[in-house]
């Protein structure tokens, strides 16, 4: 797919590793600067070093902090606004724990899970909406197919992903000037997923493919997809794999 204007900028959460890193590097390769939000400043520095090897005028603008902290969220949005035209928000950051039966799980742990997986994305969307309306931009919310089938020990995680998928549909209905999509990225090579699936370490090429498709959706998704839940390997997304 084509490159974009060097004035274009996206926000990516969880940008320092796994699928978030793959998305970030792909966006940079398409000449789109990225405000990358992650907890670890040193991990973001590694991404910056890799980005420096790309043939692009785009830049990574790191924001180290807790994605649930509204001041950190506002910093990310302000930096995007100051450095270009915000065209996309990719809500990737998520946590899977606690792994526990409903009878055993601590409610406070579930609250933390929803804070990261649902309320932080919701807050970032609200803060980004004025810019995204103006640019007719994209909101890409990473979700999971797990919410479609009940799974023991995963009520919290599955519930948070069901909620963000439904919220994406509602956002699409309420905001006709943006394109909002919920994307299941597959079983990719990340520390989070490796906790979940013992074979995830064999999935590194899938991470790169998934990152490329999600990055291209953030840039080029057709408005007809707004409100959709999609899985990255669906045939209708094949053109976004380029």
From TrEMBL:
Family note: Belongs to the short-chain dehydrogenases/reductases (SDR) family.
tRNA-binding among keywords: no
Catalytic function, reaction form: a (3R)-hydroxyacyl-[ACP] + NADP(+) = a 3-oxoacyl-[ACP] + NADPH + H(+)
BP term (GO), one: monocarboxylic acid metabolic process
Record's keyword terms, sorted: NADP
EC number(s) given by UniProt: 1.1.1.100
Domain of life of the source: Eukaryota
Alphabetical list of Pfam families matching this protein: adh_short
Enzyme class, UniProt record, top EC level: oxidoreductase
InterPro entries membership: NAD(P)-bd_dom_sf, Sc_DH/Rdtase_CS, SDR, SDR_fam
PANTHER family: 3-OXOACYL-(ACYL-CARRIER-PROTEIN) REDUCTASE, 3-OXOACYL-[ACYL-CARRIER-PROTEIN] REDUCTASE FABG
GO terms for MF: 3-oxoacyl-[acyl-carrier-protein] reductase (NADPH) activity
Lineage, uppermost ranks: Eukaryota, Fungi, Fungi incertae sedis, Zoopagomycota, Kickxellomycotina
Record SUPFAM superfamilies: NAD(P)-binding Rossmann-fold domains
Family matches, as PROSITE patterns: ADH_SHORT
Protein name: 3-oxoacyl-[acyl-carrier-protein] reductase
